[in-house]
Amino acid sequence: MTIHVSPEACPALVLNADFRPLSYYPLSLWSWQDAIKAVFLERVNIVSLYDTVIHSPSFEMRLPSVVSLKDYVKPARHPAFTRFNVFLRDRFQCQYCGSRDDLTFDHVIPRSKGGLTTWENVVAACAPCNLRKANRLPSEIKMFPHQAPFAPTVHDLHNNGRAFPPNHLHKSWLDYLYWDIELEP
Length: 185
Description:
By secondary structure, the protein is α+β, with helices and mostly antiparallel strands. It folds into 2 domains: 7-76 and 166-176, no CATH class; 80-152, DNA Binding (I), subunit A (Orthogonal Bundle). Helix content is 19%, strand content 22%. The chain has helices at 32-40, 83-89, 127-133, 138-141, 154-161; strands at residues 12-15, 29-30, 44-56, 59-69, 103-107, 122-126. A 4-stranded mixed sheet has the order 2-1-4-3. The chain is elongated, with a radius of gyration of 21 Å.
């Protein structure tokens, strides 16, 4: 019997050489094809396997569900300033009203008044709040962000990312995720 495996099926959790995920949000995953390629190039160790087997005319292998890099990759010290990372820092909610719908971003000090597009001046905002605040200073309209904007560390973003787990977590991944969260009594 031949099993056809789609690229989305059976992703492999990718761990650094210290057995921590390379990234929590988005979770560091490779397609099964990329995982197999890394195995053959001897860049990773297989930590756990799926029951799914792939076949070629001369080869048979169970798909890896968890792989660890052989060489440690030093994590970035400073996260990239992106819209996604601003939303993640702000926990995907408007910093003015708390809504999670229709998010965009807002310059706390408007660009027209000298505000820069930086971590310290940009917050997640829903479209209605962004339109209402418009081109005004927070003090002019009495709209202040719940949390002052700041440049997050990679650790800050990882902590926030844990609150938004992916839709699918394979049971073989659970032993390698969230090692550094506080245990319940």
